[in-house]
Amino acid sequence: MKRYLAAAALAAALVQPAAAITFSKLTTIYIGSGVFDDGGSDDTGIATSVQCSNVSGQSAQVRVLVLRGNGVVAASQAVTVAHGSTEVFSTHGTVFSEYTLETGYLDRGLINVESTQSAVFCSAMIADAGFVNNSVALHMVRVNGHPGTVEQRSAARKRERPTAF
Predict the structure, then answer these.
(1) Least crowded by CB within 10 Å, which of 44, 81, 132, 159?
(2) Residue 85 near residue 53, CB atoms below 8 Å
(3) Phi/psi of residue 158, each to 5°?
(4) Close Cβ partners of 17 (under 8 Å, ≥ 6 residues apart)
(5) What residues does each domain of the chain span?
(6) Residue 54, C-beta contacts closer than 8 angstroms, at least 6 positions apart
(7) Rounded to whole angstroms, how far apart are CA atoms 1 and 155?
(8) How crowded is residue 46: how many other Cβ atoms within 10 Å of its Cβ?
(9) Cα separations (Å) of 26 from 34, 38, 65, 80, 134?
(10) Pairing verdict, β 106-117 and 60-67
(11) pTM of this prediction?
């Protein structure tokens, strides 16, 4: 029994999240391409949604910037996300309770997610605005990793490797 409790205590200690890095200003944490919106109205058509959760231990500023395929800004929205909360940003109204970016028609778009905390984690999808079960996940690239995560360790290892040409 004592071994079991000791093992459980060790496991709990090992899974504790690393302290969030506080950035002095909004800093890019994710970039995602393939943003699409068919120009539909609320709860109809196809929209792109970004969901961001804050587990930093304090409130964080989060900004979602959407660029058109030609690089022109389609929308920008910054909000405060409380610790433990998730906020959703969509290119037009969907079944989510969200911040609506109202981009209009958008093809080959780009998402840039910025935050003041490293412990904000986001995902993105292109979805049927009225029935989110019809959706496609967008691949998001983590730019500034959170300490102790796989993405942070991978980035550190890449910096250590010399480049061979």
Answers:
(1) 159
(2) yes
(3) -65, -35
(4) 55, 119, 148
(5) 17-160
(6) 60, 62, 81, 82, 83, 84, 85, 86, 115, 117, 119, 120
(7) 40
(8) 20
(9) 23, 29, 12, 12, 32
(10) antiparallel
(11) 0.76
The two structure tokens encoding residue 17: 């999240």
User: Looking up tokens 């909000």, which residue turns up?
Assistant: 79
Q: Which of 49, 64, 38 is nearest to 132 (CA)?
A: 49
Q: Is the pLDDT of residue 111 over 80?
A: yes
Per residue in 16-68, pLDDT (tens digit) is: 455 789 999 999 999 999 999 999 988 899 999 999 999 999 999 999 999 99
The DSSP element (H or E) to which 1 belongs, if any, is none
pLDDT in tens, 89-104: 999 999 888 999 999 9
Token pair listed for 153? 């360790």
Task: Report CA-CA distances (Å) from 133 to 40, 136, 138.
Answer: 17, 9, 15
Pick the CATH number of 17-160 from 3.40.50.1370, 3.30.420.40, 2.60.290.11, 3.20.20.100: 2.60.290.11
The predicted structure's pLDDT at residue 25? 97
Residue 90, exposed/middle/buried by CB under 10 A (0-12, 13-18, 19+)?
buried
